[in-house]
Amino acid sequence: MPVLAKEKVLIVEDSTSLNILYQQYLRNENVELLTAGNGAEARFLVTKHQPALVLLDLGLPDIDGMELLEWIKQGTPQIEVVIITSQNAIDTVVEVMRLGAMDFIEKPFDGKRLITTVKNALKQIALSQQVETLQKTYARSEYQGFIGSSLAMQAIYKIIEAAAPSRATVFITGESGSGKEVCARAIHEQSPRKNAPFIALNCGAIPRELMESEIFGHIKGAFTGAQKSREGVAAQANGGTLFLDEIAEMDMDLQTKLLRFLQTGKFQPVGSDKEISVDIRFVCATNKKPLDEVKAGRFREDLYYRLQVIPIHLPRLAERGTDTLAIADYFLKQFAAEENKDFTSLSDKVQQLFLQYDWPGNVRQLQNVIQNIVVLHNATQVEIEHLPHPLNTVSVADNSSIRAPDIPQVPVAAVSPMVIKPLAVTEREAIEAAIAFCDGNIPQAAQLLEVSPSTIYRKKVSWE
């Protein structure tokens, strides 16, 4: 077993006797102890040795402990600080936490309390380092046609990578314009079938009476107007991937035939009595809620469960935080090049509005908005006055600020009953996305969500 490197722990305490006592308490721990008796020494040792943890007494002779805490967190935010204080006032505790302290310990305390505090702090530091490494390793801003580095999209990328090598059917759900076909193509491109055909069929765009022929093909004379035999998408996709978009629009009789096709890999062209066998990977999608369609009797329950082997739900654009700005920037550069325009960026006000807007049409709407702006205007920066309807009717408050990543905000004027979800649903979605991103590692997910692992375990139990 390799010997674990000792983490540096700096004790900042002006009392010599207490300084020695704390060292005695920690002498058997796997740490390298540094000590300082005042603020100046502490600053020198922090700069020189970059300790993982600082045990900081607030009552120093030459500098206010709060000031030293603020200096440490501003200059070296990766260094964690545990405050040692004899002040038990709630405002003191609140202030040190606001300035970035990890924890505090109140005098007097025994060795067991100090050891537990240090061990817990070092465990959290180690976990933070693991999560940071994980994010650097796996966080991607672009992936197989997708643009965005939000936590929700990182989880989607990982599901695609895990599902792609398989033959299992994938069922993609999400609102119109959220990228369902992009997702289907990504699965195909990441699979062993990437050099074979990818055939996409929008079931909502084909008349019902022609849908069966479109999927399975027909022979000459099968129906009026069938002057020659025609191959359907099922045969065209042989060896590759067949993507059936808006599958919930398919009528019930054809759903029965599709179910048999999924189960056997065989079909009959319209008008033929011969079966054809094909090797196809099925990917299906809908912008509806499949279970609601099942309950309403519009979608076969057995077909739903046959498709729901690997479900992927694509988030709304408004739920993807600052991905909106990355996507807008991509489209802006693309259309500016195509139209030979000088646009290079979005103004701060436009960025703010884009982050606040609900985007009912999702990525497709954002793409159309950017194209409209580039075609109709000439400038280097997109301004509020360039925005088309309905964005030009949305006001941005002067005191608004761009929100943190992955926390969608919607202006009051844009809120509708369909936008708001129950808090419990939103919380569960965030927790499940974090767990998926961390490959099921709940402590890492807890670190990303800034909650304790016990909170996640308790929530999971309540869902069962």
3D structure, described in words:
The chain is α/β, with parallel strands linked by helices and 464 residues long. The protein folds into four domains: 7-136, Rossmann fold (3-Layer(aba) Sandwich); 148-315, Rossmann fold (3-Layer(aba) Sandwich); 318-394 and 402-413, Helicase, Ruva Protein, domain 3 (Orthogonal Bundle), CATH 1.10.8.60; 423-463, Arc Repressor Mutant, subunit A, CATH 1.10.10. Helices cover 44% and strands 14% of the residues. It has 18 helices and 16 strands. A hairpin with a 2-residue loop joins β6 (142-143) and β7 (146-147). The two termini are 40 Å apart.
Distinctive features:
464 residues, alpha/beta, Rossmann fold, Helicase, Ruva Protein, domain 3, 5-stranded parallel sheet, 18 helices, 16 strands, transcription regulation, nucleotide-binding
CATH topology of the largest domain: Rossmann fold
Main sheet characteristics: 5 strands, parallel
Percentage of residues in strands: 5-15%
Oligomer: single chain
The residue fraction in helices comes out at 40-55%
Given as residue ranges, the uncertain stretches (5+ residues, pLDDT < 50) are: 397-419
Structural class: alpha/beta
Shape-level CATH architecture of the largest domain? 3-Layer(aba) Sandwich
Give the domain tally: 4
| Biggest sheet: strand arrangement | 2-1-3-4-5
CATH classification, class level of the largest domain: Alpha Beta
Query: Count the helices. How many?
Result: 18
N-C termini distance: 40 Å
Rg over C-alpha atoms, rounded to the nearest angstrom: 29 Å
CATH superfamily of the largest domain: P-loop containing nucleotide triphosphate hydrolases
Please tell me the overall pLDDT: 85
Please count the beta strands (DSSP E, at least 2 residues each): 16
Name the shape in a single word. Answer: elongated
